[in-house]
Amino acid sequence: MNSAITTCEHPNPLRGDGVLSSHEGDQGSKKDGQLKSSSSSHLAYGILDIPPWYLCIFLGIQHFLTALGGLVAVPLILAKDLCLQHDPLTQSYLISTIFFVSGICTLLQVFLGIRLPILQGGTFAFLGPSLAMLSLPTWKCPAWTLNASQVNTSSPEFTEEWQKRIRELQGAVLVASCVQMLVGFSGLIGFLMRFIGPLTIAPTISLMALPLFDSAGDDAGIHWGIAATTIFLIVLFSQYLKNIAVPVPVYGREKKSHTSKFYLFQIFPVLLGLCISWLLCFVLTVTDALPSAPTAYGYLARTDTKGSVLSQAPWFRFPYPGQWGLPTVSPAGVFGIIAAVISSMVESIGDYHACARLVGAPPPPKHAINRGIGIEGLGCLLAGAWGTGNGTTSYSENVGALGITRVGSRMVIVAAGFVLLLMGIFGKIGAAFATIPTPVIGGMFLVMFGVITAVGISNLQYVDLNSSRNLFIFGFSIFCGLAIPNWVNKNPERLHTGILQLDQVIQVLLTTGMFVGGFLGFLLDNTVPGSLEERGLLAWNQIQEESEETTKALEVYGLPWGIGTRFCTSSCAQYLPFWPREGEVGVRQLSLCPGDSEEGPRSATDTRM
User: Fold this and answer.
1) Residue 494's CB: how many other CB atoms inside 10 A?
2) What is the largest CA-CA distance in the chain?
3) How far apart are CA 524 and CA 510, in angstroms?
4) Whole-prediction pTM value?
5) What is the pLDDT of residues 374-404, one digit of tens each?
6) Which spans of this chain does the record mark as coiled coil (predicted)?
7) Helical H runs in 359-389?
8) What are phi and psi of 408, to 5 degrees?
9) Number of separate domains in the chain
10) 3-state secondary structure 490-538
11) 382, part of any domain
């Protein structure tokens, strides 16, 4: 998922009279030559630091919980179009699978990819083309799968109905991932970024979530009271109570038992809102305040409608490649997912720069960006093989969490990767999330989709908003990105070329609002006359000024275990676009937090977290 709000206030979630402090002997080992830049001076642990093992586990679990909303949302949104709305057990399998694959992809990205502490997980960018493909007449769910009384989830007929749909998604993701690996490992992404500016990115990201208002509204409409409660709680925690510290008991070597302040509402607003609304539904179910008739309004807000999934789910289940069968491929699905891959790559590059600044690392050089995009493509390949129904991307939420916790060690993200792997194997975890009442999910979606839309629009800060040219391009792209898919969905028979496969490709692309809006923004921004400053490219390129931190860049972004320095040192390897090269410059990320450069160096003997 791809949205986060980070601020420069309250840099430490645990602080106050009883801050957690550690001295030289117990704060974990540090690499020689640790980066001493101004951006890292306020960090509790920098990117090359290794915190104590128990702190790695605690913060790894925190990163898992931060990404939880996005990880769970993807399979739950896909469930209806996969004909699984009445099969929570299979939904739990999809949730476990996406946990497991996200863990593998996170470890690959930290060790072999960009090497920054970035979590990997499912992406909303793939949802648009996936839902567009599943809305084709060939893949629309039969009427009997929509009626819970007619669905026998253990019957071979029903199993084949949903499995053939997810196999089609698998095939599209597998082929599109090869394109992403090619673009990344070949260095082609640098060439593409010359033509992609804010006026392309803003409508593309905004239209990831805008077309999903119908699905989110339907889920929330199951019981608007419960959905409104969920929305109220999330907004309350994330906006009004984010600066309120909660005292928590802490045990230290010097102060022994004491209390410390923890910014609970700032870190877990979605999780808290979800759990409280879930508990409210449970109370209303036990007291029979919610209707017990399946056809009555609000019935799906009851917690016992999916209660059997917890008893049916195995304690342990090991996801494996090809668990749903052999993937199938169609041109319609492939072209739609390729459009999503381009959007995901552009967004990930922004996450790389933001993450580097927050953890005090030098801006990522070209070879590291190429490798990061290539490894994300490999992650999508694994997601397609395992059958998550989605791909993987860098998680902006967790980049934001780095700015809050001020712990930038990549060993923490390694711990988060192993936590994801364990959660994917532990079957009861996925089953628990599959039992969340539908209106609670709908309320969460409304908030999350609103934030994603706002994040897309925020890219316009780089362009001249007083320019009629820019206002026209953005407004026209957004409006067409909503209007054209709406018309095509209502009139699919009008798209007729005589070639079925071509008809399906055109229909999938034109019903994907993200593609329509992004393509129009790209076309108009590169053809309508306008200065670099007016288009926002001047400010955009300032973020990529040359840096002199070549030694630091090699230390942070070089391959592990001596690859390229002690092993695989062939001169031929130096010509690979993703291979580390000494003397390559990085790119400087503009500081978003005033006063970073004025801070003094962090004390070596007292670390505040």
Assistant:
1) 9
2) 78
3) 18
4) 0.76
5) 999 999 999 999 999 899 988 877 776 676 6
6) none
7) 366-386
8) -105, 10
9) 2
10) HCHHHCCCCCHHHHHHHHHHHCCHHHHHHHHHHHHHHHCCCCHHHHCHH
11) yes
